[in-house]
Specification:
It contains eight helices and four strands; from the N terminus they run ββααββαααααα. The protein is mostly helical. The N terminus and C terminus are likely disordered.
Length: 179
């Protein structure tokens, strides 16, 4: 159960907020639970895709791919966080941060504590409504100790075009440079 749902109020600064799709959304900062959940999802997706391919592949090719995937899992490609490097990412996790459904799943995990489970179609709506702002907030969630993201236009008088073209925001799905 999420903290917001059981009445627990998180400490100040634990969330990034963004206005999108007509409401204020709170994104949790990265933590070991989010890392673990995202890494597990990446591994499950790889296993699901492998099993879906079974009917299209011959037995030898499917077994070869299963062996390769097992070796990758055992080598840490699907891990996020290691004893000596809590922020370290396996190659599959790094790739998932910027490809396919990975950014959407990570956004779901960032929102879960404050909003419960948010359906993926709603996540896509948030990205569509405020892509640059969502990107900035997700970067901040992945690195809470980094410099603050650009202040709002109301605080600085700077318009969104100036903020975006200053190089702070990149493509909405490219999260690899953050973690």
């Amino acid at each position: 159960m999420s903290s917001a749902m059981n009445g627990h109020v998180p400490p100040p600064g634990k969330f990034e907020t963004v206005m999108a799709d007509g409401q204020v959304w709170k994104l949790s900062h990265i933590n070991p639970g989010i890392r673990k959940a995202f890494a597990a999802w990446v591994e499950q997706e790889a296993m699901r895709r492998l099993h879906e391919s079974r009917s299209r592949l011959g037995p030898a090719e499917w077994n070869g791919r299963r062996t390769w995937l097992t070796e990758q899992i055992m080598a840490g490609a699907y891990d996020w966080g290691f004893p000596l490097d809590p922020n370290g990412q396996g190659s599959a996790v790094t790739r998932a941060l910027s490809e396919g459904d990975g950014p959407g799943r990570l956004m779901q995990l960032f929102l879960e504590e404050a909003h419960g489970e948010v359906p993926i179609d709603r996540i896509h709506g948030l990205f569509a409504d405020q892509p640059e702002e969502i990107q900035l907030k997700m970067k901040r969630c992945l690195d809470p100790n980094s410099a603050s993201p650009s202040p709002s236009e109301a605080e600085t008088g700077q318009n969104r075009t100036q903020q975006i073209t200053s190089g702070v925001a990149s493509a909405p799905r490219d999260l690899t440079a953050m973690a």
